[in-house]
Amino acid sequence: MTEDGGPHQLSYEPKLFANATQKKVIPISELYKQLKKLSKELNALEQETVDTQSLDSVTKQLLAPSLLRHKEPGVVAYVVCCVADILRLYAPEAPYSDDEIKAIFNVFIDQLQLLGDVNNQFFPLREYLLTSLATVRTPALVAMLPNSENIISRFFTVLFGVVSPSQPHNIQMQILDILQQLLEEPKSVPQDVIDVILLQFTKKRQQDNPATHQLASDLANATADILQKYIYQYFNDVIVSAAQQRASQRQQEGESHGQRRDRGSGSADSMEDLRSAHYLILELNKSAPGTLLNVVPQLEEELGVDDVEIRVLATGVLGQMFAEKGYTLAKRYESTWKTWKGRRADTSPVVRIQWVEHAIPLYQHQPQLARELNDYVVEKLCDVDDKVRQTACHSLGLLEMTSPVQAAIGDNVVGSLGERCKDRKAPVRSEAIVALATIYSQVYDELEQGVAVAKVKWGGIPSTIFMLRYIDDPDIDSKVESILSGAILNFAKIKDDRSRCQRLLVVFDSLTPKARSGFFSYMRRQQDIIRLTNLFLTLCEKQGASQSADSAGAMDQQLRLVAVKIAACFPEKAKVESALVQLANLHDEEVYKGLRETMDPKNDIKTVRKYQKSSLKRLSTLAPSLLDTTAPLWKCVGLTTINRALVPFLIEHASSRASKQPTSAASRFNAAADALLTYVTNVYPEMLRSSSAELFDVSELRVSAVHATEERLVLMVRFAKAIPKSVPRNADLESQLAAFVRSGSMRQAKYAAYLLTQMEGADVLCAALTGDVVDNLDNRHLEQRSPSFAALSRFALYAPTEFSTYADRVSQLLVQNVLAGSLDDVAQMDDAGNGSVDWVSRADLEDASLAKIYAVKILTNWLVGLERQALTRDNVQLVLGTLRQLVRNGGEIKPGAATRATDCQHLLLTAASCMLKLASVSHFEKILNAADMQSLALVVQNPCFEVRSAFLLDKLLPALVAQRVHVRYIPVIFLVAYEPEAALRDNVKHAVEQRLSQVRPTPGSPSVVEDSFCRLLYILAHHPDWDDSQSVPTLELFAPYIEFYISCVCMAQNVSLLFCYAGELKAYRNRAAADGVSKDIPNDVFTHRLYILSELAQYLLREKSMSSNWPVNVYPGKLALPADIFEPLSDADKAAVPRRPFLDADFVARRAKAPTATRLGTGKRIRSKSGAAAGAQAGAQAGAVALGSPKSGKRKKAAAGKPSAKAKGKARATHSNDMDDDSDDMADDDEAAEDVEMSSVAETSDEGDSD
């Protein structure tokens, strides 16, 4: 206002033109002065106080074309600033016509287009123009103009074009205000504007200029309610148009509704348009989801269209939209969410794959929402299409296992993923194994901390993976070995050996007993490949040094044979074999040395890795094509899982130091460390050499806890057994071990005695201790005499020279006083004569009972320990006679002796085990006869489950698998045909099929199992259950034995051989035994039984062949039966053999009428009162399994050979604990024992203490 309160007027009247026509302006310098002055004064005027009539002259002048189109950019810049101020001062009305306003805004836009040049001298004027337009809301004038679409479109095009990340933020905000005004003021928004806005959401635009994308996002969010209908219309037009185009294209190609293919073949252009449109939807959902109010239902409709590619597209887009964080689309559009979930069951696997790819990531992005999908994910993990299953496994492996993700994934998903590891398709298996391992690697920290929830859900992953060993597939095995060293153990990312050992223990401790067998089987597989690789390298080196052509040719053949064996352990056998042959032809010592060093148990992990890298680098230089194929071999044989560097920490965990702190982490892994150290001592004892000082630390033996010292002694014993005479000698250790022998517990005395025998120069001490122990044997004033017996059993075996001084005295004492029952007679009589008692573990037996057990072991060890030339007939007869009496009399030294029933069980088991031990020594094996084998066979059918199970699984089967005893003992294992526990039968079947059937005396000859068929028939002919007076029931009783043998051994390839073996029996007679068990039965009776069994075996083989469609041809070879049990017939004797059938016709007729299931030997084995078989019908009676205990000629009827539920659950643990002392008596072969346990049904077998 003026001083009198009136409105302010423009005081300056500029002279901008040279004449009245306004076509020519004044000189440029003067023009700048005039415009600057005018702009300054206009800028100073306020809208509320200005006298607009004073502006009329200037208002008209500024619109002169000579000014608005001036060639000087500065002139135009000043002019538009002045015009902007005029519009500000006149607002809300404008002093111009519609055409003039259009011209003005076109000039405005031209100036705004130059905003990108921030260094221009006139940039401040253009910035002023922008600010004026934004604050005064001048663009609202455009909305009132008719046909203003072009101007509005120009605004959007220009302003989005000038935005850049380097611009000041205030400029971008002002541009946003202007654009927002241009959307809010008009009644409708031009389509070009929508196109410009959506253009900013394209991928290219986002990459080229992120600022425009941000501007478009802010604008869309600010005007979402305005843009909704336009965006919907845009997408509707694109989608409908593309769909129609694709439908028209398919119709032109002649594709009818009934012939529609899985993937539509519509126009590529229309599909590209659809993809672009759906991509924009995704970007809008991320940046401005409010604009898609009507678009989401449109996507829901696409889920149900016939076109597969459109369904795929819609499924993927909605899946990504549901995954957007901070915006739960599923809650706003429940119908769409439900329809989308339904696509999991789409008829097209391509759509199901798309669904899986976007459903599983919801665990990551929307954990709460994903909980609804657990059952559906399980469904897809079991989908009929392998690619769907593969995608599901792969997607699960990509998840980042945060706490919310772990909580969202259901236990059923984890279990189903584990099942996919056994999928019939290799790619699915591979993805599942990798996914499980990746998940385990991410959740390991929680498992290490012992988080209960994590252990329940994820702790079983290693067991699932190592159980895959039972499939025995090279592809699976290679994958497991790869992820074991990778994601499971992850040693490459762990820098210190203590932490590596900790991780190994965490993994191993989580394994189930069966999975532990799988783990050790993988370790043995590595050991086998290492052995073959060492042989391969040796042959390579010899080949390089070979001079003659003949030797080189033979070497090449050997190399190829070894290469074939190595290649068989890997998936691509042919490629690996070819690569190994090429590797052999390289003759490069550096490569060979590097490979050999990776397998050296003396190297630590760092050294192994160094040689792996250096040798592979060298190989890549010499033969790059071999690298990918042979690298898995380097990785497989590298000793990193079990390594020398980990041994000290394993000892620490397994030592008594940990046992004194029961709550410590070290104590938690005591048993796991113990099991791993057992493996190390048995397989790689060299790894222990560098840790012998820590292992034999005397302070570990001086703790008060007896159990702790026993466990430490166990570790020492294992080391000493692995490396004989390796116990370091020092006074403190000698003194402590001697103290254990004299006054320790049974286990302390036993182990200490063994360690002293393995100490160089300790012979004198062993002799003195032997004398002390012998004096204690009949010392009735001692509370516990069993420790002395246990220690003496070790001295008898490992210090035979020192023991020999007392041998006669000891043997007489043991046989006459201990085993005959005069020692503590009163204690022994309390339960003598009881018919049937429950099994009592050895740890719970009384001292007198233990003394008897160790008396048997002392006698046996005495014989085994003596040199052959030191043996006498009397010694052998005394010991062997004692063992025979114990086995044949069911654990009693004399028939009918009043021996406690629980003692009989243990004595029978011990005596049978000791007889097997003698059988493993060649000069004793020759003494054992057929009657001894027959006696051992009956132990397998003992009424006590624990006796027969321990003898079979812990003694006989491992000895046969390891080939420690003669193959003539193989038929004994087939007497488990009536075993009520399926696990025992299946363990036998597994051992026969996987190990024993592979053993052949010479290449091409019958296997040892096939060769044992006649021996089995011999055992059956001498079986006490045979009743000659009841032909048909006897045949029905004995047929299942042969059928069980056939089920384990018979195949199309060997049925003719077995048929010939059975028929050949009629050319022989039973050889009379010098020490027969059944002397009262004439030899001709046994021969007659053999002929019956011969025809029975042929009948059953023919029956099996017919059911399996196998031809039974004449066997071309010549067979000879074992001379120790069969005597060939002379020609005259052969002619005297009756031509009539020996097999009872009634049996054949009854069997022909019986159902197939009945013929397969499902009946129970029962003894009648007369000792004859009661027949198959009686066998069906409840609870009537009779596995008789041998008692002289006749055998008692057993109540039930099946253990109680409680005993069954602890059976294997009990066996191992009871037999723990036997591990030092017989040569250990853990590999054989593990192979016996590798039965697919050995679930009841728990790993026990086998020290």
From TrEMBL:
SUPFAM superfamilies: ARM repeat. Keywords: Cell cycle, Cell division, Coiled coil, Mitosis, Nucleus. The keyword Coiled coil applies. The keyword Cell cycle applies. One of its GO terms (biological process) is mitotic sister chromatid cohesion. One of its GO terms (cellular component) is chromatin. Residues 28-55 form a coiled coil. Residues 252-264 have a biased composition (Basic and acidic residues). It is found in: Nucleus. Residues 1192-1213 have a biased composition (Basic residues). Residues 1219-1237 have a biased composition (Acidic residues). Residues 246-270, 1183-1251 are annotated as: Disordered. PANTHER family: ANDROGEN INDUCED INHIBITOR OF PROLIFERATION AS3 / PDS5-RELATED, PRECOCIOUS DISSOCIATION OF SISTERS 5, ISOFORM A. This is Sister chromatid cohesion protein pds5. The lineage of its organism: Eukaryota, Fungi, Fungi incertae sedis, Zoopagomycota, Kickxellomycotina. The gene is PDS5.
